[in-house]
Amino acid sequence: MAQRGGAQRPSGGGQGKICQFKLVLLGESAVGKSSLVLRFVKGQFHEYQESTIGAAFLTQTVCLDDTTVKFEIWDTAGQERYHSLAPMYYRGAQAAIVVYDITNQDTFGRAKTWVKELQRQASPNIVIALAGNKADLANKRMVEYEEAQTYAEENSLLFMETSAKTAMNVNDIFLAIAKKLPKSDNNARSCWMLQVITFKTGETM
Amino acid sequence: MAWTGTRLHIDESELLCRTGCGFYGNPAWDGHCSKCYKDRTLAPAPAAPQQPSPTQQPTRKAVFHPTQTLRNKVSRSVSDVSELTSTATSLMSRKFDRFEEKRRQQLDKRTKAVKSMFRKSQAREPSRGGSGSGDHPTRVSQQLSLESHSIGHEFNQYLQKLHKDVEVSIIKHIKVFLEKAQKTFEFQSVEESAEIVLQFYTNMEDIIATHCSTHGLTEDEAQRLMSLTERYITTRLYKTLIAAVNAANEEKDLAIQNRIRSLAWVGSEHLDCGLNETDEEVRDTLDRVITGLIEMNSQRAPSDKLEILESASLMLLGALGASSGPASADDFLPALIYCVLRANPPLLHSNIAYITNFAQQPSLQSGQAGYFFTNLVRGCGSSEGGWGTGLGGGLGGAYITNFAQQPSLQSGQAGYFFTNLQPSLQSGQAGYFFTNLCCAVAYIEKVSGESLGLTEDQFDRYMSGRCLPPTPLDDDSVWLSQALRVMQENMNVLDQVVGGRGGRRRRPDTLHKDIDTLSEQMDTLKDTVCSEVDVVLSRTPLTILPPRSADLDDDMPPNPLLPPPLTPQTAGSTSDATNTTVLETPTDSSSKPPVAGDEESNVDVRRSTQTSAPLSPDIIAAQEGLSFLQQLSDIEPGMTLLPVAESAGGEKEESHSQARVDVNTSDHIGNMDSRILVPKPASNISGILNPTPAKSTTNFPGLSESSMPTKSSHFPGELDPFGPLAGGDKTTTTTTTSSHNPLPPASVTTTTTTTPYSGFTVQGGKIPSIPCDAGQVLPTTTTLTHQQQHQLPPPLVPTAATSVTMGREQHDEPDAIDKVYNVLGDIVQTFDNLL
């Protein structure tokens, strides 16, 4: 079933599996979430660009060895006032990128709260990546690389400093996520069915 | 209380009346049959009359009573008896709540009661034979709506392209399902229906999957089949399903609608969305998005609803992108909230619930363990971990819906999110936009002052309608109200024109300057015109003729009627020639008499006017009129010789003309003066003028004396020079005066007509001849004459009457008269205007 909505890749993936993942972008507004994803989707890495209108919802396909990973990227509103709506977005997401701005300490603090929230409330197996964006503005840096690095390690996050402007590490971070994502989906469904059945019988009895 | 558990299997023995009378009992009647129940309830009140007919109204009334008691029982079992009394006391204050509660309970009751009856009837069915089973399908087919037909048609067509086995099996499954659904859904809760529907989807998927392997269906085909199935099913069952959904969400729908209404003051600036609403295009797109959101309600299949939502969202994204680069979610969500606020879509919650419940699960892989789900599951002691790892599948949806039946999970915010956000809608573009819509709704529902950047106090005041945000009429205000927009645009334009803002003083200055120059031009124009008129006047001094004529007039009262113009007798043929020329090309005739200085003066006038100031049409007309008059006067000299002109009409009447001459001469002597003279001159002037005199004579009485002299004043002067040329005939001068008649031609004709009629009767015979004459004599003018004869005949008559002896003189060309009159009228008017 997992392949149903998968990208129609004419080649490249070959007989390999096609996995589709939902990825959520979180982070304070104006840290560059959208530009990051735009760079990823429209940069040199992309092969199939399926939606060019806006950056709110984009898909991008990545080739990994024998599998094709299709990212469904959900952008979220970063403003504080919409924070409470975020669960609706990251529910069911297999991956999340929490973005902060290295020139703004506040955004890093915000990113930490996002990570905490994700770890607590999102699906347990969610792959979380921390991205320190605007790495091209290193001279205005307010968040040290080491600081973020340690934090990421403590929380077992993927971490990279990126720059949507120079495309630094943009593709890499998505690729790293793709690698880390579990590819064995088909088991999941049968597992589901089993649970449903047991539950149903339980209910009727 | 076997009745409270709807799902329990009920033994037939339980269905029977408790008293054991052998009839079936009814839960509404405490398990009694109607008769026993009535007996039982009526027993304590023996005063009540016996009800012989258990079927009609009374029973219906009774239904209410039992429900009441039953509810009481339930509530008693749930809480205390005291609660009953308390509710009774607070009944007045909580009337509405009670009403709602009651309504809901009745709904439940009905559902249950009907359900049980339904089950009962099923149990009985075999005994009734096949008749009952046969009813349903026919009823169903009768109910097919237009939409159902169209989707059914589409579905069929698609199926026919597939393998026969596939078609048959799918049709069979759908039919079976529909039949079942139609029977049961009406009495089920939304969740139950949803469960069944989702199960059916899964079954269909499996069936199709098997077909995929056996009949080589491609994935695309399978997907299409599934979506068609979904659309077909939901369209067919729409009425039932949406009714259930509506009933369940009615309060929420109303609540959000009111909420949105009270939030009408929220502008895009509050929401922090980057919509540039001053842009025409963006506004149009917003309007379309809003229409889309509202339209969502009119679609039947969930996928169609989603499609509309999707396209509307994409439009919105486009609009956002137009205002500032590619749009991100930072802009999108606020904009969507804004649109929802503006649109206030009907039945919002119902639609969302409908989509979540009955949309075909996209079966894309998506994690099931969301935040709310986790919360829900926690309460039930299940292991979330298992769900969390779970991926994909419509079964998840089914599972969750099952789960949702646990009442403890259906309350509060979590319940809201749960029901509104089915995980199956968590992927795909449609899923994304749907999530956004849900977010927008959720945001609207709990929006507070803080989230809008206002203090709570402000927020409260805005919400209660006591205040309005101050921004609306600002420069960049973002109101979608068309009227306000237009008003603001106009204000801006005004600002620009008046130059109020930005210190743009130049524009008003130039404007004022322009106005000044324009008024100056107007002044100069007036001056020049005045001076020209003066020049003309000075060149053609006034003669004192008019006063003289007045005296004469007194002497000769009858004269006015006489068309002395008879003078023309002398040479009819020649006059004819001149006449024609005059009519065709007045300039020629004018040029003929070089003596007349008027012409030159005319030319001068023209030149001067042209050079001095732009010629207004009025002036030109006036000049033309003048020149024409002058021509006429010019002609006179020649005319005098050939006064016979009028005879132009016919040679036959030459004899008459001679007679006329006599008359004329006599007239001349007598007329010589005043207006009376006028007629004569007219006669003197070629044939053309003849008619005029005739008219003028008649007119004279009607004419105001005051006006006469003033106007005529110019001409007498003009004519003076001719006087000698013309042979010193004073008649000539009179002609001009006549021509000056200030009265508009129309009035002249009317006056003439009235008086003449008597004459008409007398000399009716002659009148017809007029047209003929004109036609013969002046072929060029014939057309004119013909047209105008109709108007003019009257004037001729009077002349005839007056002339008496002459009788015939009048046939002269009426067109010429008319022309003269017209010209004169124009001139007078233009001069009046100018001066």
UniProtKB/TrEMBL annotation, chain A:
Q: What Pfam families is this protein classified in? A: Ras
- Keyword DNA-binding annotated: no
UniProt entry keywords in alphabetical sequence: Endosome, GTP-binding, Hydrolase, Lipoprotein, Nucleotide-binding, Prenylation, Protein transport, Transport
Q: Name the Enzyme Commission number(s) assigned to this protein.
A: 3.6.5.2
Which cell locations does it reside in?
A: Early endosome
Q: Which Gene3D superfamilies does the annotation name?
A: P-loop containing nucleotide triphosphate hydrolases
Q: Which GO terms describe its molecular function?
A: G protein activity; GTP binding
SMART domains linked to this entry: RAB (SM00175), RAN (SM00176), RAS (SM00173), RHO (SM00174)
Its protein name is: small monomeric GTPase
Organism of origin is: Petrolisthes manimaculis
The lineage is: Eukaryota, Metazoa, Ecdysozoa, Arthropoda, Crustacea
UniProtKB/TrEMBL annotation, chain B:
Q: Which organism is it from?
A: Petrolisthes manimaculis
Which biological process annotations from GO are given for this protein?
A: vesicle-mediated transport
Q: Which domain of life does the UniProt lineage start with?
A: Eukaryota
Cite the record's Polar residues compositional bias ranges: 66-82, 569-592, 683-713
In which residue ranges is the amino acid composition biased (Basic and acidic residues)? 101-111
Gene Ontology molecular-function annotations: DNA binding; guanyl-nucleotide exchange factor activity; small GTPase binding; zinc ion binding
The region annotated as signal peptide is: none
- The VPS9 domain extends over 250-453
Enumerate the spans annotated as A20-type domain: 11-45
Please give the Pfam families that the UniProt record associates with this protein.
Answer: DUF5601, VPS9, zf-A20
User: What keyword terms does UniProt attach to this protein?
Assistant: Metal-binding, Zinc, Zinc-finger
Ranges of biased composition (kind: Pro residues): 557-567
Protein name per Swiss-Prot or TrEMBL: Rab5 GDP/GTP exchange factor
Q: Which PANTHER family match?
A: RAB GDP/GTP EXCHANGE FACTOR, RABAPTIN-5-ASSOCIATED EXCHANGE FACTOR FOR RAB5
Q: Where is the region Disordered?
A: 44-82, 101-139, 545-617, 683-754
